[in-house]
Specification:
It is globular and about 55 Å long. The protein is of the alpha+beta class. The chain has a 5-stranded antiparallel β-sheet. It has 4 helices and 5 strands.
Length: 128
């Protein structure tokens, strides 16, 4: 079975092939980092990790053999692919904006614990 996610006038695309219980995920090399950010478990469970294609310039693939993945994670990944291509890219964001939005979300999540400890802690810090 093949799942293909892309939006016209965007260079963002993902193809997922399922064959005999194994999955092969392909995308543009520039988007591997975004996928790894949201689904790091995919690369961790792959024995080959992401590999850049020797045949197609700018394309990378990830192989997940049978029994190396959780079907719930695959289902969430496919839903995420659908959401990104139909909702996020539909908003008119180009792929560079998507990268910038991802960086902003990461920065926000890294800043929240600092802000929480600095501005919302009870009693403050003790000084020696």
């Amino acid at each position: 079975m093949e799942y293909h996610f892309e939006r016209k006038r965007s260079d963002f695309w993902i193809t997922v092939h399922e064959n005999d219980g194994a999955y092969n995920i392909s995308t543009k090399t520039g988007y591997v980092g975004i996928i790894n950010y949201f689904f790091p478990i995919l690369e961790k469970r792959s024995p080959t990790k992401w590999k850049e294609s020797k045949k197609y310039e700018g394309m990378s693939t990830l192989w997940l053999p049978q029994d190396h993945y959780d079907q719930d994670v695959i289902a969430k990944f496919l839903d995420w692919c659908e959401h990104v291509t139909n909702d996020v890219l539909w908003l008119g964001l180009n792929t560079n904006d998507l990268k910038m939005l991802t960086a902003a979300v990461v920065a926000l999540f890294l800043a929240v614990p600092y802000w929480k400890s600095r501005y919302f802690s009870k009693g403050g810090k003790a000084h020696a």
